[in-house]
Amino acid sequence: MSTTETTETTWAPERLLTSPAACLALRELGRHLAGAGFINRFGRLQIDDEKNEPLADLALGKYIDVAVASRFLGGPQATAALLETKAATITEESRFSLSFEVLSDGTAMAILPFLDSADDVPIDSVYAGTDTWLLRDQAWKYGLHGKRAIDLGTGTGLVAAFLTSRYETVVATDINQRATQTAQLSRELLHETAKSRMHVVTNDVAAGLHPGTFDFVCVNAPWVPAHRADGRIYSQGGETGFELPRRFILEGTELLAPNGIFIALCAELSFTDGSNPLRELLDDLEQNGFATSIEPTHAPHPFHAAADGTAETLPGLETARHVTAVVKRNP
Ligand SMILES: C[S@@+](CC[C@H](N)C(=O)[O-])C[C@H]1O[C@@H](n2cnc3c(N)ncnc32)[C@H](O)[C@@H]1O
């Protein structure tokens, strides 16, 4: 297959949002994928029927015939709108591909824009990783009761989209406008009820949100220390990596209604001087009307890139592990 591209691949989510034909294409794509039982958890691909393989290829960002793509996207006008907004590319041989991948757990879906280059990751790129699925699974486990949920630092919006199957109102927030624009596009993939439940907001942690009003709050907090994060918004957690998770935990738990549950994926660090900032923060919350616990995850060690353990990544660091911090507001 030749992939001689005739258009650029620069991703511009804000241009799609202002194109009704491009939004229609996303709605049609979401409808076809839901009908075909499409599940894509990073390589764990599933689809109900082999005849839907071209549809799965389209959703994975592979090249397929433009006429076939057009069938799944609501017609030539919608396909043209995607090309015009740089959300798709076409070759001289009429092979068409999307500039993004669709993530799906079979119910919730989200758009993950492809990077122009894996070597040059922009600081405002939109993140999804294996921990996204971990957050989704923890949300499945802990997000059981109530009407209102919020996904802080939503990225693609996948977990917020998932929460619409459990909650009447779901807010998805992020400080990165590129992420909130992408989450808005992800919303277009959902069926009408889910779409009407999901609201996307650009803000800093919990700024502007009413305290005490959410039954479930979740976050996959950035935890990488500044000197290792290259300024990337999705990973940089502050100087030691805990400054931003601390804010998410403090401000996120303030959002909880009585009996509400907060979960944060983050790193638990302990230092040779005996300090453990996450544990100490949760102990403080225990004194102020919350019940807390720390559940280790099966995700890789946060500082696994260090050659031998954790000592060289932060001064005085003794141990580090990836955990889910769970906080419940007492009745
Ligand atoms: C590790 S990513 C997780 C994204 C998504 N929740 C997921 O699990 O795929 C962290 C997210 O937090 C967002 N973020 C970083 N700083 C933030 C802040 N001060 N306020 C709100 N969101 C922030 C980033 O833009 C990014 O989308």
TrEMBL record:
Keyword terms, alphabetized: Methyltransferase, S-adenosyl-L-methionine, Transferase
Claim: Cell wall biogenesis/degradation is one of the keywords in the record: no
The protein, known as: Unannotated protein
Annotated CDD domains: AdoMet_MTases
Domain Methyltransferase small: 145-261
GO molecular function, one term: protein methyltransferase activity
GO biological process, one term: methylation
GO cellular component: eRF1 methyltransferase complex
Organism encoding this protein: freshwater metagenome
Cross-referenced Pfam families: MTS
